[in-house]
Specification:
The chain is an alpha/beta fold and 347 residues long. 40% of the residues lie in helices and 19% in strands. The chain folds into 2 domains: 191 residues, Isopropylmalate Dehydrogenase (3-Layer(aba) Sandwich); 140 residues, 3-Layer(aba) Sandwich (Isopropylmalate Dehydrogenase). The strands form 2 sheets. A 10-stranded mixed β-sheet has the order 2-1-3-12-11-4-5-10-8-9, sandwiched between helices. A two-stranded antiparallel ribbon has the order 6-7. The longest helix is centred in the first third of the chain and has 16 residues. Bound molecules: nicotinamide-adenine-dinucleotide, 3-isopropylmalic acid and manganese (II) ion. The site of manganese (II) ion has 3 residues, from α9.
């Protein structure tokens, strides 16, 4: 099976390196890796953040393991050339509309959570984030108002089919877990959200066994801190899901802990940590690689049909944490490579 490795920028290559060591140890020769540049690194090498050869590799591969993109040197480029366009382009070109972001507190990390340990203890949720639509992909631009003032705009929209297909992923995810789905929107203000809510309710007719609730996104942000244990599965749009998952990560200990799977309708997937390229710590060996290692476990489970290997990696991460492995974001002093070695030792 061919895995496309797209390390990207900043800490991306650092966390990918440790993840590949773990995959070698667990899967041996069963996986073949082929690497390609993406993001700012690709722009600097060839003038485009998502070169054709990189996109071709992503299409050819059985699964994609992605680090992170983003480079402060590129922030002044026109938008289509910025590193972030690479991940947005991959998600869109490959039809990866369903982004699963599990947030759970490893018991050993109760002290790393930003919440009191007794509040954090119950965190075990999956945020199902729509990834191909919303304000991310609507018409956008800069224009001048009649009064001669600069105006930026980004159109938010969803059509009913886009909502229906992600709603089904939310219901199915809840069915495989504790049977509770919370749909998060802003239907009190946004037409896009009113359609979202209406369609989620329509689809719920096919899932009478699932307990469906609705919550406004502002309340959800508050509830994630007040009582995160109430959530089983959250289904939400692209922008709200982006923001809420960063927040959930810190409730569960660190942004360096949260993996993700971005799936199409046929099982093809891109796997990446939810964090970015972290320019503030890049090159210093301070990045926590566990989010990427846990993303590789999701890859083995969802795209490569190796659930036992996925279980082994997740168990090794838990064991490493139980043994005291802590990078700086978790309050410790281990380097990125030492965190990788702790997982290898646990294996
Ligand atoms: P970020 O997630 O890169 O970093 C936010 C904070 O969390 C920083 O203080 C960073 O040091 C810390 N952090 C992140 N990952 C960590 C890890 N594994 N271990 C320890 N600490 C970690 O977000 P940002 O600073 O807002 O964005 C930086 C760049 O990354 C931007 O260019 C942004 O567009 C990009 N970005 C890319 C992705 C992606 O590739 N999918 C995701 C988010 C942000
Ligand atoms: C993420 C990131 C991306 C997003 C950016 C880099 C385009 O924040 O993967 O969470 O907003 O989706
Ligand atoms: Mn994000």
């Amino acid at each position: 099976m061919l895995v496309a490795l797209l390390p990207g920028d900043g800490i991306g290559p650092e966390v990918i390196e440790q993840t590949v060591r773990v995959l070698h140890a667990v899967c041996g020769d069963a996986l073949t890796f082929e690497e390609a540049p993406v993001g700012g690194a690709a722009y600097k090498a060839s003038g485009h953040p998502l070169p054709d050869a990189t996109l071709d590799l992503a299409k050819r591969a059985d699964a994609i393991l992605f680090g992170a993109v983003g480079d402060p040197d590129c922030d002044a480029l026109e938008r289509r050339l910025r590193p972030e366009q690479a991940i947005l382009g991959l998600r869109k070109e490959l039809g990866l509309f369903a982004n699963l972001r599990p947030a759970k507190l490893f018991a050993e990390l109760a002290d790393a959570s930003a919440l009191r340990p007794e509040v954090a203890a119950a965190i075990d949720m999956v945020i199902v984030r729509e990834l191909n639509g919303d304000v991310y992909f609507g018409e956008k631009g800069m224009r001048t108002t009649p009064a001669g003032r600069r105006q930026g705009y980004d159109v938010m929209s969803y059509d009913e089919d886009e909502v229906a297909r992600i709603a089904r992923v939310g219901f199915e995810t809840a069915r495989a877990r504790k049977g509770r789905l919370c749909s998060v929107d802003k239907a009190n203000v946004l037409e896009t959200s009113q359609l979202w809510r209406d369609v989620v309710i329509e689809i719920s007719a096919d899932y009478p066994d699932i307990a469906l609730s609705h919550m406004y996104v502002d309340n959800c942000a508050m509830q994630l801190v007040r009582n995160p244990g109430q959530f089983d599965v959250i289904v939400t749009g692209n922008l709200f899901g982006d923001i809420l998952s960063d927040q959930a990560s810190m409730c569960a200990g660190s942004i360096g802990m949260l993996p993700s799977a971005s799936l199409d309708s046929a099982g093809k997937g891109l796997y990446e940590p939810i964090h970015g390229s972290a320019p503030d710590i890049a090159g210093q060996g301070k990045a926590n690689p566990l989010a990427t290692i846990l993303s590789a476990a999701m890859m083995l489970r969802y795209s490569l049909n190796r659930p036992a290997d996925a279980d082994r990696i997740e168990a090794a991460v838990a064991k490493a944490l139980a043994g005291g492995a802590r990078s700086p974001d978790l309050g410790g002093a281990l380097t990125t490579a030492q965190m990788g070695e702790a997982v290898l030792a646990a294996l």
